[in-house]
Amino acid sequence: MAKRNEATRGRLSREAIIVSAVALADAEGLDAVTIRRLAQEHGVTPMAMYWHFNDKDSLLDGLAEHLIEAVQLPEPGDAPWDQELREILDAFLAAIRPHPALAGLAMRRILAAESGLLIAERVLGLLRRGGFAPAQAAEVGTFLICSIITLAVADAVPGPPPTGEEREQALRDKRARLESLPPGRYPNVIAAAPALVVCRDEDDYFSLNLDLLVGGLHGLRRG
Amino acid sequence: MAKRNEATRGRLSREAIIVSAVALADAEGLDAVTIRRLAQEHGVTPMAMYWHFNDKDSLLDGLAEHLIEAVQLPEPGDAPWDQELREILDAFLAAIRPHPALAGLAMRRILAAESGLLIAERVLGLLRRGGFAPAQAAEVGTFLICSIITLAVADAVPGPPPTGEEREQALRDKRARLESLPPGRYPNVIAAAPALVVCRDEDDYFSLNLDLLVGGLHGLRRG
DNA sequence: ACCTGAACACCGTTCAAGT
DNA sequence: ACCTGAACACCGTTCAAGT
């Protein structure tokens, strides 16, 4: 389909492959990100990829790193630790939100590259300022990052994102199914049906649960 | 390899397939759960599976349902709402913990089957008792469940679980890498290295972060 | 240094056909 | 009702070879 210099002028490169992989994941989901498919988009044979990446897993490593590098870490300030932590978590979420299909890749790869290590260092430092011992900070910090990723992944349907029209229809069906449940047994599911099938406002959803996470830190016993 | 009645005496059945798929996922990870592999273990051709499941996705639906059905929902009592909620989240985590490779399947499938709807109804009911409006309860409740799943998924390495020996080695390597980082830039990562690479006690890790989640509810504005 | 050709062992899935 | 045979369009990966 794509001739050689359509996607990249000149040579094939790690960066060019990663950029097209990100676009592909955004458009059609992570399952569409395939060695063979990427090769085709660059007008190259599948084996050419193996010069730039050891295997598919290291391609995914590259995607995760690319994602994490996009995080715009705020400068350290003199705000209270919890407020500064919140800003970092906001920045992290802002960076991965546009790529829900890829966000999950970051879960087990934050400590693999420098950009992720910098984030971890900041988060751990703030938690220590908040009174957490190193091991506790590690456990809580890991969970915080994973939870943010979970927030971003939550609105990723696996496979190709459906078109607006069929998506609307699927949501209507799902909501109708919930609302036609026996009212005696499921009163709360029925009452919450609209919000269960799709949140009213994504920003509200995110900030509500970020409030929960950061607020929850204050109740924990330190030591 | 396996003769016909090794894995199942008599006929093939949905349940028998699911049970062997769970065992396979536990032993070798979700990637090993393959139509062809399962067929082989039941001494049957791959196409036989398509009589029992529409496609692979509905097999995964079945696995998720199987997992959620294992949740031992505590009886409703007269404990405070947050305490009862905590018990439900504990029960949920206890059920999915043994199957980290499968836990992720439950994320988008809780509302698909009755067992999950019952859990959702209880969680939503308790959140409403805690003062949350229906839509807010939906958003917080969804996040709570997803976070619990994240906790369980967190210690699932994709692919076949490595043997004890090579796992130990991999963890030692990872820890050594973190500890040999420049101390000027990464003091907190270095201090937390042991806990970042593997938590001392999994129960502690889980209960610490469950405390965070449930405690975080109290700080949220209701309405 | 960078890429191709040919081949291997896998996937999920369909469709017609057997009992 | 339950399963098979044959076929299709995909995967990731290796290895020797070309320029």
Automatic annotation (TrEMBL), chains A, B:
Superkingdom classification of source: Bacteria
GO biological process, one term: negative regulation of DNA-templated transcription
DNA-binding region: 34-53
UniProt keyword Nucleotide-binding, yes or no: no
Gene3D superfamilies assigned: Tetracycline Repressor, domain 2 (1.10.357.10)
Alphabetized InterPro entries for the sequence: Homeodomain-like_sf, HTH-type_TetR-like_transc_reg, HTH_TetR, Repressor_TetR_C, Tet_transcr_reg_TetR, Tet_transcr_reg_TetR-rel_C_sf
Name of the molecule in the record: TetR family transcriptional regulator
GO molecular function per UniProt: DNA-binding transcription factor activity; transcription cis-regulatory region binding
Start and end residues of each HTH tetR-type domain: 11-71
Keywords, ordered alphabetically: DNA-binding, Repressor, Transcription, Transcription regulation
